[in-house]
Predict the structure.
Amino acid sequence: MSSFAETIKGTAALVETALDDFLPTQDGPLGRVVDAMRWGALDGGKRLRPFLAIAAADMFECPRVRSVRVGCAVEMIHCYSLIHDDLPAMDNSDMRRGRASVHKKFDDATAILAGDALLTQAFEILAEAETHADGAVRCELALELARASGKAGMVGGQMIDIYAEQKDFDLAGVTQLQRLKTGALIRFGAVGGGIVGCGSSDEVAALSAYAEDLGLAFQIVDDILDATADAETLGKPVGQDTEMDKATFIKLFGMDGAKSKASELVDRCKSHLDRFGVVAAPLKGAADFVLDRKS
Ligand code: GRG
């Protein structure tokens, strides 16, 4: 296993333990929604967004107890989005992370509620004093996560995407759509780590520039995997973009063009971190990981 694979496995284990603690099982009717939250959030995924939060915060010697909480908050938002995206009213997907999607395992109403509860708990975690002693830092984290998740971020991107299925998008349109739908939460991972680590505004801006390029590279690779990988490796259905004639980077650049664009973006995203020196190595490793990922 590469040293980066070991590193992300280590932070993923911290996130897994913390998520498990945040979601204790319960008896009675409430237990059902908690079980669904656990099914949607535990034991799966690459945990890339929390990795970015933890690795960015590490550069400022931020205690892990704080950065893991920021990582859990962004992962909860990500998991809620996957649960809702899989619903029949959206992508109608039966499989996620190699197993039944939440509405298949439970039912649609439970999946909607589990997603809603993960979304709200993310902000509860950020607002709690354990995340940072300074209320202004907690407030900035909540503000950034709200902007990344809502209509100016992921939800807005998803809305555009639903309509993009019927429209031809040019490069600017696809870039804007993906910047919102996928990029905003990836950006929050890195920026959230910088904020909880009390980086300067210039340092947080460099993290933001890094993550914006990384987010686009991530999406291009996602498009490539949807067209080339098999469902078992990916843990979800494949070929849906072509089937639905979605606006993708492959449609715009062709397969080879998309691969070189992703590689260009990864080179550029790493260059935004040069100012930090050797402590940025894990974040640079994440960029190579995004380019080389197979799932
Ligand atoms: C429902 C509000 C709402 C938004 C949904 C994220 C999203 C928006 C939809 C998911 C559809 C999708 C497959 C988007 C492509 C990029 C993406 C977010 C892939 C999944 O992220 P990974 O690869 O997943 O980080 P893991 O399972 O590793 O966490």
